[in-house]
Amino acid sequence: MKFKLRPNETVEWRSKKGTGFWARMGIGVVGTLLFLVGFQFLSEGWDTKVSAGLILAIAIIVGYIAYAIRGNVIEYRLTNQRIVITTFGRVTKEYPLKMWEGKPVSQYLKYHVSYHGGGPRYNVSILHPKTLDAVLHCKDINESTITILKKIGHIVKCKYCQTTNSVFNARCSHCGGVI
Ligand SMILES: [Zn+2]
Q1: 99 CA to middle of ligand 1, Å?
Q2: 96 C-alpha to center of ligand 1: Å?
Q3: What is the tens place of the pLDDT at every residue in 106-124?
Q4: Which of 38, 57, 111, 136 could pair with 124 as two cysteines, CB 3.0-4.6 Å apart?
Q5: Separation of CA 5 from chain center
Q6: In the prediction, which pLDDT does 98 show?
Q7: Least confident window among 3-17, 32-46, 62-76, 152-166
Q8: Does residue 95 contact residue 79 with C-beta atoms inside 8 Å?
C-alpha cells in the first residue's frame, strides 16, 4: 500500500532511516584503501597480496553501499495519528500514536548524542510501549527533531468536549474545536 495521508492527518516529522556518521566515514576510509591498493597494482603489477586486498576492499565497499541504499529507501514519518515506515514509498509498518498515549518519554525514546562538525547529532530508537522492541532506529538527527519525538505520547484534552487528543492535533478529532 502506497503511503497516503488520511483525513485531518498532518506530517510532523519525516526522515530517511539514514546511514549515520560512522558509515559515511567507513565509505571514505575503505575508498581510500581501494585507491591505495589500485595504486600499488599499477606500480608493482598483480600479485596474490594485491588481489586479496582488492577483493576485500571491494567486498567492504559493496557492503557499505548496500547499507547506504537501505538507509535511503526506508523512510519514517511521524504524523498526528501514527508512525509510518515505508520502503520505496510503500507502507511496511504503521503504529497508531494511541499506543504511546500517556506513556513517559523515558520509556519509549532512547537516544545517544554525538558531536561531530557543528551541533549535537542523535541516534534515536523509538520503542514499542509494550514489547520495548525498537519500532524504528534513526541516525544522525538534530535537536529540534528530538523535541518533536518527545511529544509522541503527549495528550491534551479538548476544552469543548473533553476528548483526548494528540498534542500534534491542531483541532479536536471529535468536535473539530481548536486545541
Ligand atoms: Zn472536542
Answers
A1: 20
A2: 19
A3: 999 999 998 877 789 998 9
A4: 111
A5: 19
A6: 94
A7: 32-46
A8: no
User: Is the pLDDT score of 40 beyond 80?
Assistant: no
Task: Identify which has the larger pLDDT, 49 or 166.
Answer: 166
Distance 156 CA to ligand 1 centre (A): 10
Ligand 1 center from residue 149 Cα (angstroms): 24
What's this model's pTM, rounded to 2 decimal places? 0.78
Residues around the ion ligand 1 (C-beta < 5 A): 158, 160-161, 163, 172, 174-175, 177
CA of 56 to the centre of ligand 1 (A): 62
Chain CA centroid to CA 161, Å:
36
Q: How far is the CA of 102 from the centre of ligand 1 (A)?
A: 18
Q: What gap in Å lies between CA 156 and CA 118, rounded to an integer? A: 35
Distance (angstroms) between ligand 1 centre and the Cα of 179 equals 8
Do the Cβ atoms of 161 and 169 come closer than 8 Å? no
Kindly report, residue by residue over 82-102, the tens digit of the pLDDT. 999 999 999 999 999 999 998
Angle between helices 48-73 and 20-44 (to 10 degrees): 150
